[in-house]
């Protein structure tokens, strides 16, 4: 069984594995750290238990110090001066020029490797410098990208609000239509009931009139009989 690589080799690997202390980043440890910091605001790194020390963020490296990422050593640049002149807006011609130079440098590297492999190093350094310059030009477009992304997000939010408002208006229109239909049905039912009530009253009035007429006729018949008997 092969021996595990030393820590220095694991850190300087092109694609290093995650550090082992990531296992300490748990909810319980974060809660313990928060309670300790609330009870003692002047808590230092050495005052913490070993399993909580990795939860504190490290201090930023000082200026002009080297740091390693993905197997390469980089120099930490000094902080920018506040008196520095404002940067010029990004120039697309500069990016196009750098891209063409990068393609030519790549052709030079391939030609050097094919003809004289010992002379590839300077051309490779030139290609890396052009690549860094291209990345620097691309990074100058980050504010423009952020602004355009924000504009796109705001436009999507406005469209979403318009769609929601339109949906609310459609629902209100459907509810109003349902209420109007119910009201019309109630009105029709009321009109029908009123008509039936009028018909019922007419029928009752006719019955009452017929009863009165029958009573009157009976009275006249009695009177006629009585008058006839006198004759």
Descriptive key words:
mainly alpha; elongated; 231 residues; 5 helices
Strand content: under 5%
Which blocks of ≥5 consecutive residues have pLDDT under 50?
A: none
Mean pLDDT: 79
Q: Helical segment tally?
A: 5
Computed over alpha carbons, the radius of gyration is: 48 Å
Order of helices and strands: HHEEHHH
Measured as a percent range, the helix fraction is 55-70%
Strand segment count: 2
Separation of the first and last Cα atoms: 153 Å
Which strand order spans the largest sheet, edge to edge or round the barrel? 1-2
Based on helices, strands and strand pairing, what is the structural class?
A: mainly alpha
Shape category = elongated
The main β sheet shows up as:
2 strands, antiparallel
What does this structure look like?
With 231 residues, this protein is mostly helical. Helix content is 65%, strand content 3%. The chain has helices spanning 7-11, 27-39, 92-115, 120-139, 142-230, and strands at 66-69, 72-75. A two-stranded antiparallel ribbon has the order 1-2. A hairpin with a 2-residue loop joins strand 1 (66-69) and strand 2 (72-75). The longest helix is centred in the C-terminal third of the chain and has 89 residues, at 142-230. It is elongated, with a radius of gyration of 48 Å. The mean pLDDT is 79.
Q: In a few lines, what is going on in this structure?
A:
The chain is mainly α.
Task: Set down the secondary structure blueprint.
Blueprint: H1 7-11, H2 27-39, E1 66-69, E2 72-75, H3 92-115, H4 120-139, H5 142-230
Antiparallel strand pairs: 1-2
């Amino acid at each position: 069984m092969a021996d595990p690589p030393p820590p220095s080799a694991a850190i300087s690997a092109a694609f290093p594995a995650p550090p082992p202390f990531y296992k300490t980043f748990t909810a319980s440890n974060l809660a313990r750290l928060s309670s300790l910091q609330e009870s003692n605001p002047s808590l230092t790194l050495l005052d913490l238990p070993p399993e909580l020390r990795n939860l504190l963020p490290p201090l930023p490296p000082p200026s002009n110090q080297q740091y390693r990422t993905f197997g390469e050593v980089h120099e930490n640049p000094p902080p920018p001066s506040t008196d520095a002149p404002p940067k010029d807006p990004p120039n697309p011609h500069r990016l196009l020029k750098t891209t063409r130079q990068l393609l030519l440098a790549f052709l030079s590297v391939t030609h050097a490797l094919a003809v004289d492999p010992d002379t590839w190093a300077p051309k490779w350094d030139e290609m890396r410098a052009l690549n860094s310059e291209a990345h620097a030009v691309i990074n100058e477009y980050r504010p423009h990208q952020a602004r355009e992304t924000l504009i796109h997000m705001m436009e999507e939010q406005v469209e979403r609000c318009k769609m929601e408002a339109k949906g609310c208006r459609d629902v209100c229109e459907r509810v109003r239509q349902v209420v109007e239909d119910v009201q019309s049905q109630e009105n029709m039912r009321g009109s029908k009931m009123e008509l039936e009530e009028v018909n019922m009253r007419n029928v009752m009035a006719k019955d009452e009139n017929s009863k009165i007429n029958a009573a009157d006729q009976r009275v006249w018949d009695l009177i006629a009989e009585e008058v006839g008997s006198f004759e």
